[in-house]
Design a protein that fits this description.
With about 850 residues, this protein is an alpha+beta fold. A ten-stranded mixed β-sheet has the order 13-14-15-16-17-19-20-27-24-25, covered by helices on one side. An eight-stranded parallel beta barrel has the order 3-4-5-8-9-10-11-12. Strand 28 and strand 29 form a beta hairpin. The chain is globular.
Length: about 850
Amino acid sequence: MTRLFTLILLLFTFFTTANAQTGKNEVYVDQQGRMRWQKDHSEVYLFGVNYTVPFAYGYRSVKALNKDIEKEIDEDVYHLARMGADAFRVHIWDTEISDTSGNLLDNEHLKLFDYLISRLKQRNIKIIITPIAFWGNGYPQRDEKTAGFSSKYNKGQATVNENAIKAQENYMKQLLQHVNPYTKVNYRDEPDIIAAELNNEPSHSGPKEKVTAYINRLAAAARSIGWTKPLFYNISQSPYYADAVAKSDVNGFSFQWYPSGLVAGHEQKGNYLPNVDRYPIPFDTIPEFHNKAKMVYEFETADVLQPNLYPAVARSFKQAGFQWVTQFAYDPLATAYANTEYQTHYLNLIYTPAKAISFLIANRVFHLLPRDKGYGTYPADSVFDAYHLSYNEGLSEMNTAKEFYYTAATSSTPVDEKKLEHVAGVGSSALINYKGYGAYFLDKLENGVWRLEVMPDAITIRDPFERASPSKEVVHVAWADQPMQITLADIGGDFDVKGINADNNYQTKAGNGSFTIKPGTYLLTKNGKSAAKWTGEKMVGNIGLNEFIAPQPVTKTPFVSYTPITEVSPGKAFTINTKIINISPDAKVTFTVNRGFGPPANINMEKTSPYDYSSTIPAAQVTTGFLTYRILIKDSDKYYTFPGSHEGDPYSWDNINNETWQTFVAAAGGKLSLFNATTDRGSTNTYFPVFTRNGGAQFASGEETGQLTFKASIPAIKQGQVMGFQLYIGDKTKYRLPEVAAYTKAVVRAKIITGQTGKLKITLIDNDASAYSADVDLTDQYKDIEIPLSGFKPDSGMLLPRPYPGFLPLWFKASSFSGLAVSKLDKLQITAGNDLSPDQYNKPFGIEVESVTLEP
């Protein structure tokens, strides 16, 4: 960002502040509990993010890279605006800006937060602050020694200890009266801070009346210094205290949603659209809950990369009556290459471009959908209003007269191209043909003149939800020239392309709409049309005309990203697809495959994009047993071998590297393993009601050496309790499709372990989220239990990982069933305990499951 543009933004802030009516609230809550804008009394709807760089690990991680933190904030806020975010919330780390008595500390953290507020204002992003976080600043590292009251009183003490409460009251008053040096306005009177949530995820204990009294004390402290804006308090964290929270003197309540759980340690695969199908609120029986505003302070589809969930989340929130929604948490550009801030969350415009476009679509969903309107149950609601969501295509799509957005290749055509003003996407559409891996934005400035912004390619090379480290790149950014074709009648086929961001002097003329493009910002001008007025650093909405921000690559070493295929059918050719980064265009890539006997086969890999390489293993090589293989790269005079990233000539007599990938080639007509406790233990989502010293879920030794079993037990099972697990199996059937039509039965190897009787429910869920179940009777001895596939009947499936908060639905039943098809299988679930007779309650209960297979 240039100094001149920064000056323009500062002047904009100054004049905006100077003309604001000090102390006037932009937002109020009416008697029906709806937040409304003062200016026209319309309902408030805002959709954005949490972002933490001024505090805790966000601050330390950027500082450790020796980066200018204010500049990093500038860049991130620009990207938030580019994604359409118009809401910002964060729980302030009070432990970093207060002492033990609650006195405000004027330090670098507070200064950076002030700076962030000033930058958000410039982009018209509204703010809700949560003054108290209740915890230390360490995660994911250890807590530092800080001066704040949260370093003296823990989360549980904070709501009951008198000295802790006095410190919070003192801190609340001082923080809300703090004058931001960048805007010259205190937080109380700052018009773009529209509300406050009193604290973050409180931990309550003791009598309910004291909970109400505690909340009222914090609210009174805020109002005692003249705060008249809406105050919110968390009601979903501790449902037992919901009635006590509802009786408090606040204007609204805050909620959260983690529909796919948290911290799986790996990417969650499979169709998670059922997990975000609705958000029922269980507090309607509390009289005081009514006529209060509702906000979502945090949500995220944790550990999920697929970009089809955010719009469904926004639809569910709108249907439930929420007016403010903020994702947790947007990854700073400086560290997003490694996803270190919160490994279970991952959202960044550059590094997760499809999720970012999905977020943009979700913002529009939240703003434009009617309130309280339902659209049915998934999959019936995968098309609603102007939106289309597809799990199988990895697609979120918005298609209106003015806006056309998509997260993957789509065959849709714009509703009305003549009225179109904004296009954004990843992949290709009827308007834009583009094979790059980054997001792009096309915005109309006037007839015949459009602004094009193209982000660098983002290539996912590792699972971003595994254990994180600043030294481990999970998404690689690359700047490559890519072909693009734009078919837009408004500019014709021979338009001019001119770079306008800093240091971008690129100019060309399209031929039949086609041209080569590199990352940057451009003017596209119809042949013969003048774009003379579109120069300099003028603002187009809340985006600078010539703004562009993107990082350079973090690594330069060659790397091969590949996950081996588990199992394939015999005698059938199959294709290996891999991504390779940081090699020259003329590098030679060879795929070397070995069978159990005979010489290796060396196959040249075909380059299909700047990073994609493929190779087909001939049918003659695909014989039963194991195939082992590796990839060799010769780039100039250097050799690299994968897996293992070994540098050096692999054919040298003293090269000792022998790492390989392997794929099992099944016997003709052989079984298809859906679950084996030994090999699948790291990929299951376990559900268990209560973990105790004497009960829980684990992988234990089976009957034979080397064989594990999934074991779940509970000392005293209660009515309604259920245990079990889920496994994504979509990749298990993919390479056995020639044989799946011949499978007629499922075989389960399992037993009961407590001397009781019981049933095991086997549920097969397809990629449309239709669940089909069958029950089997267990004994206390392992046995193979056969179930005809015709015996699986339409049923409900569990939503796993368990959505949080815990009052959300655990079971889901699809709106339609087209019949069980093995080729469409997506998930396997095994559950037990929910069909016991009353005489079995409050007694020990447990199961063991070794395997599930499909057989002819």
